[in-house]
Design goal:
The protein has helices at 16-24, 28-36, 46-53, 101-108, 138-144, 178-207, and strands spanning 57-63, 69-75, 82-85, 88-94, 111-118, 123-134, 153-167. With 210 residues, it is an alpha+beta fold. The protein folds into 3 domains: 4-36, no CATH class; 46-167, Pnp Oxidase, Chain A (Roll), CATH 2.30.110.10; 176-210.
């Protein structure tokens, strides 16, 4: 008979082998307490929805039927990942190098993982679930296609969330997006120009004969 108490969302990642490794390394008790209090969430919270839809980059992991893993980067303008409901994330699949490793993997193994990271805020989110490839649905493809983004959409991808977790910021490098740096430099240059004008005005006043 299965252990009902252990049928929790985090079991999607904490297999028997993982739990054995946690026990061996003295962290199992911590995660047992987490499981007793509800384990990882499944529904996407409002804060997580905002985080997901502000991403411009994501890593998608799939595996073949025999377990060969593959990680693919997906990117686009902020909002290219769209939360369709409390457990579904969708995005448009653009034309690429035509290897179709992800699509091939999903045809025989629908399990997938999304890894999202914000190097500026030093936050990372892990999402376990299943992914479905949707071909030929023009309405859905249009809904998922970012406006004014030059890319040819070939299909839609729908990710159904089974569990998610937020990691601590430890060891995440603090990287800032180029446009943020450019805006800061532009603001600095404006302030310098204003100060130089004030200095010139004061010099002119001092050079005037009394």
């Amino acid at each position: 008979m299965s252990d009902v108490r252990n049928s929790v969302a985090s079991d999607v990642a904490f297999s028997s082998a993982v739990k054995a490794a946690q026990t061996l390394r003295n962290s199992r008790a911590t995660y047992e307490r987490m499981e007793e209090h509800g384990s990882w969430p499944v529904d996407l919270s409002p804060d997580l929805v905002r985080f997901i839809e502000s991403r411009r980059s994501a890593f998608l992991s799939t595996a073949s039927a025999d377990g060969q893993p593959y990680i693919q980067h997906r990117g686009g303008p902020a909002g290219f990942l769209k939360v369709l409901d409390r457990r579904t994330i969708g995005f448009a699949d653009y034309a690429g190098n035509r290897q179709y490793i992800t699509i091939g993997n999903l045809s025989e193994n629908p399990k997938a993982h999304l890894f999202l990271i914000d190097y500026d805020l030093r936050q990372r989110v892990k999402l376990w679930g299943r992914m479905r490839v949707v071909e030929g649905d023009q309405e859905l493809m249009a809904r998922l296609s970012p406006s004014d983004y030059r890319a040819r959409v070939e299909r839609a991808m729908l990710f159904t969330v089974e569990a998610w977790d937020v990691n601590c910021p430890q060891h995440i490098p603090h990287l800032v997006a180029p446009e943020i740096v450019q805006d800061a430099i532009a603001e600095r240059d404006m302030k310098i120009a204003a100060l130089e004008r004030e200095i010139d005005a004061l010099k002119n006043q001092m050079e005037r004969p009394v």
